[in-house]
Amino acid sequence: MLLLLLFEGALLSGTIHEVFKRGIDVEQLKQQQANERADGKHH
After folding, report:
1. Cα distance between residue 4 and residue 12, in whole Å
2. What is the reported pLDDT for 42?
3. What is the average pLDDT score of the chain?
4. CA atoms within 13 A of residue 10's CA, in its CB half-sphere
5. Planar angle of CA 27, 31, 37, nearest 5 degrees
6. DSSP secondary-structure letter at 43?
7. DSSP three-state, residue 1
8. Cα–Cα distance measured from residue 16 to residue 20, given in angstroms and rounded to the nearest whole number
9. In whole angstroms, what is the distance from residue 42 CA to residue 30 CA?
10. Cα(22)–Cα(28) distance, rounded to whole angstroms?
11. What is the torsional sign of CA 2, 7, 10, 13?
C-alpha cells in the first residue's frame, strides 16, 4: 500500500513538473508573440 502511494506521488509530481514546464513554455510563447506585435506596431 505504501509503495503504491509512493508511486502515485512520484507520478503526480512528474505530471505537475510537465505541466509546470509547459506552462513556462506557454508564457514564453505569449511574451514572444506580444513582442512581435509590439515590433509590428513600430514598422
Report:
1. 12
2. 62
3. 86
4. 6
5. 145
6. -
7. coil
8. 6
9. 19
10. 10
11. negative
